[in-house]
Amino acid sequence: MSTPPVPRVVAVVVAYNRRDLLAEVLEALARQTTPVARVVVVDNASTDDSAAVARVAGDLVDLVELSRNTGGAGGFAAGIAIAMADHEPDWVWLMDDDTVPEPAALAAMLAAVDGTEYAVAGSRVVWHDGTEHPMNTPRRNPFASRAELREAEARGGVAIRSTSFVSMLIRADVVREIGLPIADYFIWNDDFEYSTRALRRHRGLHVPESVVVHKTRVLGSTDVDPGARFYYEVRNKLWMFRRSSSLGPIEKAGYGASTVLRWIRTAASSTDRSTLRDGWRRGWRDGTRYRPRPNAVALAGLGRASDAVTRIEPADG
Predict the structure, then answer these.
(1) For the chain, which domains are there?
(2) What is the residue-level pLDDT of the chain in tens, covering all 317 positions?
(3) pTM for this one?
(4) What count of other Cβ atoms lies within 10 Å of the Cβ of residue 148?
(5) DSSP assignments along 131-180, one per residue
């Protein structure tokens, strides 16, 4: 009896001004016990030597240099498009340039989803000291059936409704079905929208045996005082609740209520509430007046990346 082929996995790493961490991430990807087929590194117009680090990392890496910073959302949209258009993946593995996977991280996720209909898998995310990272906690699926819960438990996992781009594995056929992350989100909530969009009609699994280290400067959750970036939190949540089909009506009500509570906690703990008020005002204005552009428009003028985006997701799609 022949051994089934190992799934072809293409990793996508979005890089911006963290060259030393990027080198560590690329080294960790090269050491995976189940090898990745390619690593697409999207350099988001870094001003350090991030592109040079990727360039000398070897033939495993496909470097995509963008002429402007498109944020994490634009970087992942471009990177997934390149992976899909040029590298024929079975799965795409997403991570930031401060996400260092343990050697068996990919093998554990693939083993957990092997022979199943799972469309998305996510790793357990820890900080430098092994503490669970609160910034990347997946949301359990409250609508999972008993059979789904039992299957997830049998595979050593948890049935999820969302996960983060800090080590998210997504099936390539699902990318073709749902498209790309929304580039105009720039930062924040892009992974929440994309993972819930993928999992609206598919199943996802959190895999605790797959471990990655998220090397943020501090250990904190998303309600830590965000400063001026609060604008993106407000605008993008409004875009998601008002424009996206990733959540059903009941979910939008529930997540909307929890979002308001999180905003209140953020304001209560802030040392610069005037900045938060300004971010809330501008975010509310733009989130209610405007809508995100099609990716082919938002990511136009970026050469190879733009071509790949239009191949995967046309402007009129």
Answers:
(1) 9-221+292-312 (3.90.550.60)
(2) 556 678 999 999 999 999 999 999 999 999 999 999 999 999 999 999 999 999 999 999 999 999 999 999 999 999 999 999 999 999 999 999 999 999 999 999 999 999 899 999 999 999 887 777 767 788 999 999 999 999 999 999 999 999 999 999 999 999 999 999 999 999 999 999 999 999 999 999 999 999 999 988 775 665 566 888 999 999 999 999 999 999 999 999 999 999 999 899 888 888 888 999 999 999 999 999 999 999 999 999 999 999 999 999 865 54
(3) 0.94
(4) 14
(5) -B-GGGPPEE-TT--HHHHHHHHHTT-EEEEE--SSSEEEEHHHHHHH--
